[in-house]
Amino acid sequence: MAIDVRGLDRRFERDLTTFVYDPGGNQLWPDAQLVQGVSSRLVNEGNLQSYVTSEAQLAGLPNLTRVKALKVQPSKFSPNSPYLTDAVLDSAAAARFRAAGTACRLVYLKD
User: Fold this and answer.
1) How far apart are CA 55 and CA 110, in angstroms?
2) Which among 10, 21, 8, 26 has a CA at the least distance from the CA of 88?
3) How many CB atoms lie within 10 A of CB 50?
């Protein structure tokens, strides 16, 4: 799964843990039930998310579903931070995200 966070009015930043939401604020990534009770350290070491800065870097990824972020926002852990690490998808993109399944890796395409 690739989420394009380029060209938004606010700059998306890298972080060890990010979250993806639908427009209603429901968490899509990571799947809250799948990571319940799993340490953040283990999730981070699992390399479940990565970042690329060019289309060419996405070209080698098999079975790639791409969506565009509606907006980016601060982490739920620091809602007043100027550091924007989480993505919000519109309804159509959220449906595509859900359809990709729970056993996927997340790649952010960023500036």
Assistant:
1) 10
2) 21
3) 13
Per-residue pLDDT in tens (0 to 9) along the chain, 111 residues: 999 999 999 999 999 889 999 999 999 988 665 555 555 565 555 567 899 999 999 998 888 999 999 999 999 999 999 999 999 999 999 999 999 876 678 999 999
Q: Please list the residues that pair with 73 across neighbouring strands.
A: 86
DSSP state of 111: -
The pTM (predicted TM-score) of the whole model is 0.87
> Where exactly are the structural domains of the chain?
2-109
The three-state DSSP-derived secondary structure of 2-67 is EEECCCCCCCECCCCCCCEECCCCCEEECCCCCCCCCCHHHHHHCCCEEEECCHHHHHCCCCCCEE
Residues β-bridged to residue 74:
84
